[in-house]
Amino acid sequence: MIWPLKPRRAVPIDHGTWNELRARLPWLARLGEADADRMRDLVAQFLSRKTFTGTHGLVPDDAMRLTIAAQACLPVLHLGLAPYNDFVEIVLYPSAFAVRRSGTDDDGRVHEFDDVLSGEAMHQGPVVLSWEDVSADAVDGSANVVIHEFAHKLDLSDGEADGCPPMPAARRTSWLAMI
């Protein structure tokens, strides 16, 4: 089943596909049944709202979309998809990609350099991922570029990359103290 590229009614994920995904992603298999059911619905909604664009000849297939969507939904499992409303596209490179950066040193000189990345999340912009890193992370779990970049999207959902996602003021104080 190819999920729609434009926002539409969520297409349910069949039991066989869902069970295969749970078997491949150990952390997903450990969710209790209520959370697993909530996750499955959230992933279906995510897939109906986001487009996946491949670069350099990479063509995202359903398994890739599903793998990324499940990881992206983990940070918002109990929040819903509202924090992800500022973007519609996930861009996939086959492997790590270079981004041209510039910075000014203490003497006021501007330096340009290539920053090689596995992922990047932009405020009101796409999430960019290296499929090579996504597929390795999904299996070994030691680091997770998808969860990392989507945690940035969660943080950015209030407009600031400050390490604190939107929350009531009383909770924000304790969050910042803990961080």
Tell me about this structure:
A hairpin with a 5-residue loop joins strand 5 (119-121) and strand 6. The chain is 42% helix and 18% strand. It is globular, with a radius of gyration of 17 Å. It is an alpha/beta fold and 179 residues long. It is built from seven helices and six strands. The mean pLDDT is 87. The N and C termini lie far apart (42 Å). A four-stranded mixed β-sheet has the order 1-2-6-5. It has helices at 15-24, 26-29, 33-49, 62-73, 131-140, 145-156, 169-178; strands at residues 51-54, 89-93, 97-104, 110-117, 119-121, 127-130.
Record the SSE blueprint.
Blueprint: H1 15-24, H2 26-29, H3 33-49, E1 51-54, H4 62-73, E2 89-93, E3 97-104, E4 110-117, E5 119-121, E6 127-130, H5 131-140, H6 145-156, H7 169-178
Parallel strand pairs: 1-2, 2-6
Antiparallel strand pairs: 3-4, 5-6
Helix pairs in contact: 3-4, 4-5, 4-6
Give structural attributes.
four-stranded mixed β-sheet, 6 strands, 18% strand, 179 residues, alpha/beta, two-stranded antiparallel sheet, 42% helix
Radius of gyration: 17 Å
> Termini, distance in Å?
42 Å
Order of helices and strands: HHHEHEEEEEHHH
Q: How many alpha or pi helices?
A: 7
Largest sheet: 4 strands, mixed
Backbone shape: globular
Total strands: the figure is: 6
Give the strand order of the largest sheet, numbering strands 1, 2, ... along the chain: 1-2-6-5
The whole-number mean of residue pLDDT values reads: 87
Percent of residues in helices comes to 40-55%
Strand content: 15-25%
Structural class: alpha/beta
Poorly predicted runs? none
